[in-house]
Structures are given as C-alpha cells and as structure tokens.
Write a structure and sequence with these properties.
Length: 314
Amino acid sequence: MSDSTALPQRLLARLLRPSTLAFFREGRADGVAWGELLHGYVYARWPYLYIGVATGRRKWAAILLSPLLLLLLRHRPLKPGKTGRPGFADSYHGKALPLEEATRLVTVNRSVELRGQEQVIPYALARDIVLKNPERIALLDCPCRAMSETPCLPMDVCLIVGEPFASFILEHNPERSRAITPEEAVRILKEEDARGHVHHAFFKDAMLGRFYAICNCCACCCGAMRAQAHGIPMLCSSGYLCRVDADACVGCGQCLKSCQFKAMRVRDGVCKVNVKRCMGCGVCVGHCAKSALSLEPAPEKGAPLEVQKILENA
C-alpha cells in the first residue's frame, strides 16, 4: 500500500469509530453501493430521528430532512408495482416469527450465510440471512415506542443480532442500548410474547441487504404494523396460519384481544380466523385458555423462517 493511499485511510480511521469502519468495510466487501451504506449509517446512527421522520411523528424534522431522505430513497418509488421497480416495502420489511423460531434465531450459535431466500422472504430486496457472531446481541430501546406519545412498555425490546450491527448500535447509542446474552434475549422474547406482542425479523437494504434485528411489535406503536394496516405491505406471514379446534373452542373471545392483526372474530359461539389477515405469529395460541388454537403450515403464505431446517437443507 502506497503512502498516498495509507495516509487517507489512517486519517479516516481516526475520524470514524471502529464499528463504523467495520460496517462500511463489510458493506463494500459485499458490493453494497456507497449511497446505501450512507443510508444505513444514518438509519443506525440516528434511529429515533429516522423513525420519527419516516412515521410522521417528527414533522419539523421531516420538513428539514426531507431533501436528504429523498436523496437516500431516490432510486425506488414509495408504492410498489407501478414502475416495475422494487417498492419501498421491498427495502425495509419484517417477517412474523412464532416464539419458537424467534428463540432459535437468537440462539443459533454459529455463523450463517443464506443469500436470496425468495421463498422465505418474498421481497425484491433485503432478503439475505447472514449472521456473523450471532451471539453478539444488543438490546435497544424501541424507536417506534420512543416516538409514541403513549408508548407500550417496557421500552427496551429491540434485539440487534450479530455483527457489524450490534457493535454499531452499542457504540453509537450507548445511552439507549446494552449488550445482552442469548439467554437474556430468549427471556425478553418470552416476556414480550406473554404481553401479546409480535416477533418480527427485520430486513433492510441499507443494513447490508439482510436480517439485522428482531423487534417485538404492537399495532399501536409499530410503524411497520401501522403501515401494513394502511395497505403498505411491509410485513410478511410467518408461513403459518392459525387453526381453530371447533370442539375445544368455547367462543370466549380472549384470542380477539391478543390478535394484533385483527384476524379473529367469534361467530355462532366459535372463533373464526380471517386467513387474509392472519400472519401466523402465534401470539393468540399462547393466550387461549382452552388450547383450541394451533399453528399449521400454510404453503400459500410462503415458507417459514426456520433457521435450523434451512441450514440442514443448504
């Protein structure tokens, strides 16, 4: 390496934090464009401001930063399908996970590199499952809840999984994050499941085009769930559907209260499932006192994100 090349790199290393350098180096090694890397840096460096602007909960910031956001998002339309190019949801989206699969994802304990999982992640962009140092997990205060006027609690429920993402969040947002063990991540997932919140594996093109976090979402705070309810397809099914054992169901309606997607109703004394709305998250299953609900594979909804089985068949 020549002195003319080494000097700028040394200066850059002094100006940038180690996690930032790791993020950019890994992104460039994967062929990620500089524009997307800058987008990812802004998103992960200032997640609360970014989410606040994206959800319209920080209107003053949206006005000031709209030129930057338009620059970062200039290459894709906000709504899919009208130009033949990927839509906004293809660049940032989540996949519902039953509790069992969410816990496996934070306890995989090995490196994973699965590219282009079209059946599992049905989006044109951001569908790689790449885990480096998956035991490295950062617990982050949920940006969506933080932006809500009446947030659900607790606040610290977002799991940033693997590198370079966990170190980036910990280094740049130390007051809002902390390192946790896989065992603590499992505990948090179980507690959020008991509260009726949905586990989503989130993917973003600017986060090196891959999985980077498990969020525990509620329909009242989550920006992605609110967008989904308004017709923007930011979430995809777990690959399962809720099934009702009509003989066991007593029509108590408890499952209606636990369903974040409003896919349940009681008719003629028995719970019915709206298969179009059901995302197969499984939250209702754990809240049925009569054990009348279960999850069953639904191939028409896509393939489940079952890391162990995917690895066995890779």
